[in-house]
Amino acid sequence: MFTGIIEAVGSLRRVTPRGGDARLVIDVAGLDLTDASVGDSIAVNGVCLTAVELQSGAFAADVSAETLSRSTLGALGVGASLNLELAMRPTTRLGGHLVSGHVDGVGEIVERRADARSVRFVLRAPDRLARYIAEKGSICVDGISLTVNDVDGARFDINIVPHTLEKTTLGQARVGQSVNLEVDVIARYLERLLLGDGAAREGGAITRELLARHGYLTDTD
């Protein structure tokens, strides 16, 4: 598990295709790996990767075809900047929110504008993820724990303060750029819990009838 508080911005040193998968070598910049071991989890742009080799100032990780298809890692070029975070310890302050490092989908930055000393981004999430994104809820964008300011359908906006702009890759993010999204894990489990026994049936899904039965909709909705 992670907190979504970025510890360093590294870069992609090398990509080696391996029969549909890939091995990445990542320069860690200021990330302290002195107490890291092979087998440890490291979040890379919000993707939980397992370190299979530790080098001086770098680590290697194997990335499956599933992860390459569900995240932006497969499209990154050598030299790309990467948000890095080591797995949290039991004593870590939870400054962000609980982040699993399991990317739910890829979103797109559709607007960037100045907002006093901060920057306001508007992002578009895949339609299937929109129901998990709530105003003032939490979302993880490229590994960064952020608060959702407003939601409009599948679009939502986030406000990035100067410190986050300086310490993460969002400072260089541009309109049209793809980003990894992980919704709040509580929202995902709540959906399954609402399905009850229906979760075990193929095709089980949240419907208006189900929401009404549990009191989430009224006759006027």
TrEMBL record:
Protein EC: 2.5.1.9
Pathway listed: Cofactor biosynthesis; riboflavin biosynthesis; riboflavin from 2-hydroxy-3-oxobutyl phosphate and 5-amino-6-(D-ribitylamino)uracil: step 2/2
Region forming the signal peptide: none
CDD domains linked: Riboflavin_synthase_like
Gene3D superfamilies: 2.40.30.20
Gene Ontology terms for molecular function: riboflavin synthase activity
Lumazine-binding domain: residues covered: 1-97, 98-194
Catalytic activity: 2 6,7-dimethyl-8-(1-D-ribityl)lumazine + H(+) = 5-amino-6-(D-ribitylamino)uracil + riboflavin
Annotated InterPro entries: ATP_synth_asu-like_sf (IPR023366), Lumazine-bd (IPR001783), Lumazine-bd_dom (IPR026017), Riboflavin_synthase-like_b-brl (IPR017938)
Keywords, comma-separated and alphabetical: Repeat, Riboflavin biosynthesis, Transferase
SUPFAM superfamilies hit by this protein: Riboflavin synthase domain-like (SSF63380)
Domain of life the protein comes from: Bacteria
Main EC class the enzyme belongs to: transferase
Biological process annotations from GO: riboflavin biosynthetic process
Each Lumazine-binding repeat, start to end: 1-97, 98-194
Role noted for this protein: Catalyzes the dismutation of two molecules of 6,7-dimethyl-8-ribityllumazine, resulting in the formation of riboflavin and 5-amino-6-(D-ribitylamino)uracil.
Listed NCBIfam families: PRK09289.1, PRK13020.1, ribE
Subunit record text: Homotrimer.
Protein's recorded name: Riboflavin synthase
Organism lineage: Bacteria, Pseudomonadati, Pseudomonadota, Gammaproteobacteria, Chromatiales
